[in-house]
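W.,

You were right to be curious about this one. When I first looked at the sequence I had no strong expectations either way, so I just let the prediction run and decided to look at it fresh. Below is the sequence, 259 residues in total, followed by the output.
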Amino acid sequence: MDTLPPSLLLLLIPFLPLTSLIAARGVNTQWRALAQTASLYPARKALLDLYLAAIAHPNFPSLVAALQPHVRAFDREAYVADLTSRGCVLPDVFAVWVLEWPSGAVHFWAWPGLAREFDVVHEFYSYGGGNALGDSVPTTDAIPVPNKEAASVGQTECRCLALWEIGFWCQAGVIQVWLVVDANERINERRQGRLLWTYAYHVRDADGTERPGPKRIFHDTPLKADYLIEFLDLLDSRNELLEYNLEDYYVAGVTLSED
């Protein structure tokens, strides 16, 4: 390959999967430069930039070391195919992340190769589960959309994929984070590839069984690769992730309530 002219390498490099791109950068300075300047698939380029930013972060090595004992192999293509067969329209960056992200660089608890429940003790935080992507059958659900939006898109719900969940207020309810994967083009114009944060208070049935009540959206953010870098930054605060998120929402004037 070293005998190939740079012009030809620039044509070949965009066909490399993410792990091969990462390896190519380590060949020599020429390959590193070419891998950085080649016209890469946008989702793959975003994830390559994420990987480079992550490995340069001081919190990355310790967090990866804490998670690695829990990382397991899974059939990546079958995972994506299952979601697609159920009518989910996956954002490109999410699909490429599942298919190509190096298992040795997992640094966030939402990952299909981690169990739903597992215990991690890190220097700055502890975590005990809630990884919805770790379910053997990924969970999708129909999340109610605001009435004004429902009128314009022609449906009252949008299909979403569960990513992770955390309890709040002494387990009085549950906060869940969903990725919009709806096939409705009009919904996609507004929300495709976005994260919906919902809360639901626990309710008790007549027989005493406790279950989550109706889901209500209280936050909406874009799906960004650099969110995982923000998570690494968060570890410096030595605060629980839940406290950090809720503080952000209160500052923004968003209050969780039963109304």
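Here's what jumped out at me. Residues 237-259 have pLDDT under 50 and may be disordered. And, maybe more interesting for your project: The longest strand covers residues 157-168.

Coffee later to discuss?

I.
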